[in-house]
C-alpha cells in the first residue's frame, strides 16, 4: 500500500508550509492509500523554543493550544477521507529534550496519568506515535550545522570523540522513548549523523547501543521508518543508513515508508529514490499501519504482536510492494508536472 507514516503541515508546525488539508489533498492526488499525520508534540519550556517561534511570539502555552487544534482538525479530516479510499491516522511525533521531564509532560499532554502502561499512553487521543528525538544535551541537532556543532561541543571526553559521545547519549535517550512510550513507528533512527552521513558506527560502545535499541523495538513489533527526508538533506540513503537498515532486516524488524513531509511540495518527495534504495538493499517486506477493526490475528508467525493497544494494526506487503502500479502512476504524475 502506498503510504507515509510521518508528515507535518505549516498550519501546525512553524518550520513547515501549507495547511493540513492541502497536504492531504496532495497525497490523495498522488494516489497514496495511507497517509498518516504526526505533528510535533508541544515543548514544555520557553528555553526549548526555536528562533522562528520566539520571533513569532509563540510560547509553550500556545504550542499546547496549537496541538489541541491540530488534533481536532486532524480528526475532522480523518473522517472526511474515510470514504475517499485514503486511510488517515492521527498521531504525533515525540521529543526527548530532558529526562524525565519531557516524556512526563508528553504523557500529560496526551491525557494520560503517570504510571500508565507505555502502550496505552495517549489512547483515545492519538492513534499512534512516531518515536523521535531532535536534541542531545537539550540542544537541537537538526536545526542547522552551527547548532549541531554546539551540541557536539557540549560533550567533552578524553576517551571518545565528542560526536560519538553525542551518539551515545542520543541512543540512550532514544531507548528511553522506546521504553516509556512503545511508539508504533521509530522516527529517523540515525538523525544523529544528519550532517555526517558517512560517519562509521563501528565503535563498540556505539554499535552495541544501536543493536540494543533495534532489538528492543523489534521485540515489541515496532515499525522502523525508512525516511525519505534524508535524501533532501544530501544523503545517498534514507534514514536509516545502510548498516542499520541491514541490521534491522537481519533481526527481522519491520520497515515502513515515510516522507517526513513539511508541506505540499515534500509529499512523496524522493519516494522513487527510496524505493530504489530499499530494492537494492534486498528489502522483501514493507509494513504499514491501519486502524484496528479487530479482523486480523493477534500475532505474526514469529509471535510478535500485530495489534497495538493505542488502536492500530500492522499489516505486511510482500515482495509485490516493489512492483505496485503506484510506482508507475506516481512517476508519471511527477513527470507531467515537471
From TrEMBL:
Statement: the UniProt record of this protein carries the keyword Transcription regulation: no
Protein family (similarity comment) = Belongs to the PHP hydrolase family. HisK subfamily.
Protein known as: Histidinol-phosphatase
Which source organism? Kalmanozyma brasiliensis (strain GHG001) (Yeast)
Where would I find the PHP domain in this sequence?
6-228
GO biological process, any: L-histidine biosynthetic process
Pathway where this protein functions: Amino-acid biosynthesis; L-histidine biosynthesis; L-histidine from 5-phospho-alpha-D-ribose 1-diphosphate: step 8/9
Enzyme class, spelled out: hydrolase
- Any one GO cellular component localisation term in the record: cytoplasm
The record, for NCBIfam families, names:
hisJ_fam
What are its E.C. numbers?
3.1.3.15
Q: What is the lineage of its organism?
A: Eukaryota, Fungi, Dikarya, Basidiomycota, Ustilaginomycotina
Q: Which GO terms describe its molecular function?
A: histidinol-phosphatase activity
What reaction is this protein's catalytic activity?
L-histidinol phosphate + H2O = L-histidinol + phosphate
Keywords, in A-Z order: Amino-acid biosynthesis, Histidine biosynthesis, Hydrolase
